[in-house]
Design goal:
This protein is mainly beta and 391 residues long. It has four helices and 29 strands.
């Protein structure tokens, strides 16, 4: 029910208001209520236009003049300690990068696959390093910076390798990277730290011994933006991380190295987000870049796979698109809002043709750089692309 001066309008929507006005007999009342309805429409349209955009990052636009920013490089050689010979470590695919700003430059740690095997999941992955003064044009290191070796992680990383890095900075300047360890049997989430992005210390499986070797991928640590740095931040005295493929879960840590999954009232893994029937994320959801604390709440960019059976008919079956999620600043498990449609989806040839034939824009790296957000992603599991915020 709406009120305007001395008149009461018996309706609960603009459509009902219009009907009431049209059926009225008093011209003065009709004119007065019409003015009210137009004012109400202006207010509602203003709210509708602003509210969905108020908390989201972006909008993002592809940097088409430079994309793809990283492609496979068959001439790159690296001595593989596991095989005891030189291998073409980034000959087949370069994709799914993590990103961080250091010394006023953007650094990418990207997943590179050799020609060790054939088909998705059968190659060996290593992490390469590239840097850029403008976030668009990158110079690569000749050798990978993280790879399977004869170390404490051999059993988890050989022969599949090290995949899908995400990076945040600790308050003391240490870089903390989550990545997937893949041994062709089970994928588990690992963590490594570095002071310079070149030399990394592997700490192994992220979860403590209570949760021994559960299938786990994709770790997005909640951080705050300080200038152009994304700093891991505590909530209620602990660090928090969204993780998982299929559904998205939560974990907490005191030191960013050893983590404990958050459980629900039934002592099961707490589900923060799960697939939605009829939407772009109908088959699975998987975290994207590190989550960012904002004035509106925690913004988590995530990846969604479209189902071939109950998905979004406007998007190809199996395609990976990207959505955004807003969560409570003080209660990271509490979802406040979620985008109904993808804000980013595979459209360009380098996103729809490659190793992953159904198309993907797998978002994984995010930095705030020179006043803009730069979003780095893997296209068709084959190349690295970038999209930049207009704001």
């Amino acid at each position: 029910m709406f009120y305007w001066n001395e008149f009461t309008l018996q309706c609960t929507s603009l459509e009902e208001c219009t009907t009431v006005i049209q059926n009225g007999e008093n011209l003065m009342i009709k004119m007065t209520l019409l003015a009210f309805t137009l004012s109400l429409a202006t207010l509602i349209n203003t709210v509708d236009a602003r509210e969905p955009k108020s908390w989201k990052l972006g909008p993002f636009v592809r940097a088409e003049s430079v994309n793809p920013i990283l492609r496979p490089k068959p001439e790159s050689q690296f001595f593989c300690p596991m095989q005891g010979k030189n291998v073409t470590w980034e000959s087949d695919h370069t994709f799914n990068p993590g990103a961080v700003v250091r010394n006023n430059q953007v650094f990418l740690l990207y997943r590179a696959e050799d020609d060790y095997g054939i088909g998705i999941g059968h190659h060996t992955s290593r992490l390469g390093l590239a840097q850029s003064p403008d976030g668009l044009h990158f110079q690569r290191n000749e050798s990978p910076v993280l790879f399977p070796d004869f170390d404490t992680q051999t059993a988890q990383e050989w022969p599949g390798g090290c995949e899908d890095p995400r990076i945040v900075e600790r308050e003391d300047g240490t870089y903390v990277m989550t990545y997937t360890q893949w041994n062709h049997q089970i994928a588990v989430l690992g963590v490594a730290t570095s002071k310079d992005l070149l030399n990394w210390q592997k700490h192994g499986y992220v979860f403590d011994k209570t949760y021994d070797r559960i299938y786990s991928k994709s770790g997005s640590i909640i951080c705050r933006c300080e200038g152009d740095k994304l700093i891991a931040t505590k909530i209620q005295g602990k660090y928090w991380m969204y993780w998982g493929e299929g559904s998205i879960h939560l974990a907490t840590s005191d030191d960013l190295i050893s983590w404990k999954p958050v459980l629900d009232s039934n002592n099961k893994l707490l589900v923060v987000l799960k697939p939605r029937s009829g939407k772009f994320d109908s088959d699975l959801v998987e975290v994207g870049p590190p989550a960012v604390m904002t004035t509106s709440g925690i913004v988590l960019l995530y990846n969604g796979k479209n189902s071939a059976h109950n998905g979004d008919p406007s998007i190809g079956p199996g395609a990976y698109s990207a959505g955004q999620l807003l969560l409570d600043r003080n209660h990271p498990e509490k979802v406040i809002a979620q985008t109904k449609e993808p804000f980013f989806k595979p459209e360009m040839p380098y996103e729809t043709k490659g190793q992953y034939q159904d198309g993907t824009v797998f978002i994984q790296g995010l930095v705030h750089f020179h006043g803009h957000w730069y979003l780095y992603y893997g296209g068709a599991d084959s190349i690295v692309g970038v999209a930049v915020s207009k704001d």
